[in-house]
């Protein structure tokens, strides 16, 4: 291609990318802006006004102190108010941390053990189990959730952490991810350990697992993210407000405090920030796993 | 012990947790959903058998008399209708088999005698009560047993307008969202792959919606889409002179589903772009150079080289996108207020967990499963291997 053509292509690319960057970011920035605006403020004439976050343009003044939007000075007070207005919000946060945490630990343990077994060890019926797992990958959640729920009812685990976490402790995708990793793991290291007299368990825990950090990391991040954002299963398995996770809490918040946009957006941002932090710290794993998943398809 | 045996034992030790979880929570549910879909299974009925009951109060309510006012069985015998009593005062819905058994074996005499003697002012569960006073066939009342209704649930679907509406909405949703998000993702990936600066930045920004929960995204778009909200303000600013009136995007049945489709495209296109970008970077540059020597135009290179070599990624994105769209639930639950815009997975949820029609919901879930299998089969078959 001529140099001139390349230039034009690059300019078009930049336009596409920048426009879509704005489209991608705008909803987040708008929500963040609304979350920083107080419910009421005192204007220049000393009159207390309710802030109209629906007005347009938003009249953003960042070069004044304090910075203003919608005519009101920006503040962090809505973030504190969320915990006051909805006293259960901190409980929901804790529930979400526990829910996502236990599911992640379970998936790491069960996924690495299972992945190793299916990648390296020979045991009877291995191919049968594997084919069975492969066959269930396409089963939609709508099929499994009803019997899962009735199981939990029969075991009296509705509205308990056990009931929330138990069915999510292992995931076929996680198993496949770990199996794939262990299949490409150099055999020589394990053989060296065997010659030194280590058993299968010793080899796994002392040699294989410490070297599986990248795969375990990717599995952990994806599982944690999925569980943190999960909505449908917590919705089904909990009915008491004390057991809600943040996603459910947000829905409750929406139906009960629907006009308090500032609090709503603060609550939304609070539950999104941890995921953004995790994402920014582990970008590479996210992108790499996305790539691995595509190659498989 | 032989090393082979030892390896087999370790294999099962390592694999058993995942095997147990999958058997319990995937395989067993698949078997059960077939069974449920041929029954009128209702989880609320299960609760009724476990519900605490004070028999004395139930009988007082049934007779309209206090226990202390009743002296002999003869007085009340004619007032006592056993079937009505069990259905409405004990609260168990009876099927024909159970009704027959009650008429034959229920010991009304003993119950009324105990009532008069004041023995019944205690709390027991409904199933304990029934097993105490049934002389035979106690098993019928130990716990809730769903009735087999044969193909009843599947026949019912044909007369259910909501099944038609929700299936239509789901397919429409998939047909609109999947091609647009795939096309947009390819476009973004090609743009990011054309030797521009800051690719890392774009990747991070485009990925952001994918790591945000559907709940949070729904809340943000609820704000943006609301009638006095920012989207309408911008549109009025642009098109107000041409007579644009603010639209209540989410409460207007004509726009609600499309608004959610747009939100879905926004939240997934960037994620799939990463997939395509990885694919593009694997295409060797020499192919393009060779094409240029042969005098190929930019369009020809795109259609003849880029697209065919992206085939695995395109198939992956289309299949994953379809599965996601066919099951769309969270956004509908959060944002859709009218039943004209519901999707099938939302209708399944409603039936199972709000209306108490789990049998019916199970049969709908099976239908959804079959449709998803069929569509992905077609996609795998007809998205050609080679162009």
From TrEMBL, chain A:
Bilayer disposition of the protein: Multi-pass membrane protein
Supply the Pfam families for this chain.
Answer: BPD_transp_1
ABC transmembrane type-1 domain location: 93-282
An example Gene Ontology CC term for this record: plasma membrane
List membrane-spanning regions.
12-33, 97-119, 128-149, 161-182, 203-225, 260-282
Major site of localization recorded for this protein? membrane
InterPro entries in alphabetical order: MetI-like, MetI-like_sf
For this UniProt record, give its keywords in alphabetical order, as a comma-separated list: Cell membrane, Membrane, Transmembrane, Transmembrane helix, Transport
List GO BP terms, alphabetically: transmembrane transport
Q: Where in the cell is it found?
A: Cell membrane
Report the sequence similarity comment from the record. Answer: Belongs to the binding-protein-dependent transport system permease family.
Identify this protein by name. Answer: Binding-protein-dependent transport systems inner membrane component
State the species of origin.
Answer: Petrotoga mobilis (strain DSM 10674 / SJ95)
Taxonomic lineage is:
Bacteria, Thermotogati, Thermotogota, Thermotogae, Petrotogales
